[in-house]
Design brief:
Layout: E1 2-5, H1 10-19, E2 25-27, H2 45-60, E3 64-73, H3 93-103, E4 111-122, E5 125-137, E6 153-155, H4 167-173, H5 175-190
Parallel strand pairs: 1-2, 1-3
Antiparallel strand pairs: 3-4, 4-5, 5-6
Helix pairs in contact: 4-5
The structure holds inosinic acid.
Inosinic acid binds near residues 69, 84 and 149.
Amino acid sequence: MEIVFATHNQHKLEEVMQMLPENISLLSLDDIGFNQEIEETGDTFALNAAIKAKVISASTERNVFADDSGLVIEALNGAPGIYSARYAGTGNSKDNIVKVLNELKGETNRNAYFIAVICLILDKKEYYFEGRINGTITEEIMGEEGFGYDPIFIPEGHSLSFAQMSPEQKNSLSHRGKAVELLHDFLLKKH
Ligand code: IMP
């Protein structure tokens, strides 16, 4: 079965590819030659995932899923949330991290969670899968693996940041890992 994952983010693609069954052949937006920008105008993760999935589904007629994800920090009233990718305004992960660490300077409540929502459009029907992981924001950058906010997020019950873990260990705990596991089980039942 072929399915399009509506992302240009190579890191996400690799993470998700490792987690889906071998009989599912995952195509990226680059694989299908789609290079339009899709504006994420929704005000929830689910809406933004749906916007991306629907645009691709309408233009390719293929089965497709999209994810929208982000970091939600309690002491920042939920920021960066749906604006996680562009929080510092530069689109650069290091800048986003520095902004968060500055905003949390002197703050003792470091609670946060990562969330990922997947919208799947299969045979023209929509399905949603959500994963979350609770954790805390570090005082400084820890580790170099992964992407985005990985170097400042320690999942609950652990002492290493996501950026200090192997991809397998991160996937076994992460928000995206959990959402993809639900997608995986759903696809196995369907086909
Ligand atoms: P999206 O591509 O619109 O879903 O943007 C999600 C943004 O949230 C990414 O660009 C990262 O900044 C952040 N993010 C989402 N998932 C992760 C993760 O697993 N690790 C680190 N940062 C993440």
